Amino acid sequence: MENKSHKYISVAYKMYVDDNGEKTLQEVADEARPYRFVSGLGYTLDALEQALAGLAEGETFAFTIAKDKAFGDYDDQLVVELPREQFEMDGKLGVELGQVVPLRDEAGNIYNATVDEIRHDVLVLDMNHPYAGLDLTFEGKVLVSHEATDKELNDYLNQMTGGSCGCGHCGDGGCSDGCCSSDHHHGCDCGH
Predict the structure, then answer these.
(1) How many angstroms separate the CA atoms of 38 and 156, rounded?
(2) Reported pTM
C-alpha cells in the first residue's frame, strides 16, 4: 500500500550561505551520502520541501531560500550570559568554545546553544540557529523522488525518533552511519 500524502526524496547538493553578498559553502551532501527525507513530516524546512517536491528524479536545481523562509532573523535577545560554574565539574570547565550545549528552561523545554565566549565568570551562549539571518542557496540534483511507501515512511519515522531497523548492523543503534536507509546493503536482507 502506498502512502500518497508524503514523498520520499533523496538529493545531492551543495548549500551556500549569503552573508552580506558573500557566498560561502556550508554543507555538502554528495551522491554517496545524499540528504534523504520524507516530505510533510516537519523535519525539513518547508521552503526546501516545496522547492524539491515538484522536481523529478534526475533534475538539477539551484534556488535560494530567503532568511525569513529559512531560520529567520538573527535575534540578539537569544544571546545570553550564564554563570560559568553551571558548566564546571570539580572546578574544571566542561565545555569548549564553539560547542553546542543543551539548555533547559523552567518549563522543561530544551534549546541548543553555541558557546560563543568563555569569560572568567560567565559563558556567552547563542541560542540562534547557526544559519539565522542568512539566505541559503542550494545547488544540486534530485536522485530519488516518489510517493513514499508505508515502509519508507515508517523507517524514516523510526530513524527520526532514535530507533533503528533492528537488523543488527546499525552500530550504535541510532543508525548514525546511514545503514537504515532504503539502500541498506549489509547482506542481511532486512530491507532497511
Answers:
(1) 7
(2) 0.73
Residue 89 sits in the same domain as residue 171: no
Residues 88 and 101 in one domain: yes
| 46: three-class secondary structure by DSSP | helix
CATH code, domain with 84 = 2.40.10.330
- Which residue range(s) make up the domain with 100? 76-126
Element (H or E) spanning 35, and its range? strand 35-38
Provide the mean pLDDT of the chain.
83
Q: What is the pLDDT of residues 18-64, one digit of tens each?
A: 877 889 999 999 999 999 999 888 888 999 999 998 899 999 999 99
Instruction: Tell me: do 60 and 84 sit in the same domain.
Output: no
Residue 145: CB partners within 8 Å, gap ≥ 6?
7, 8, 9, 10, 52, 53, 55, 56, 57
Q: Are 66 and 45 in contact (CB under 8 A)?
A: no
| Residue 33 CB coordination number (10 Å) | 12
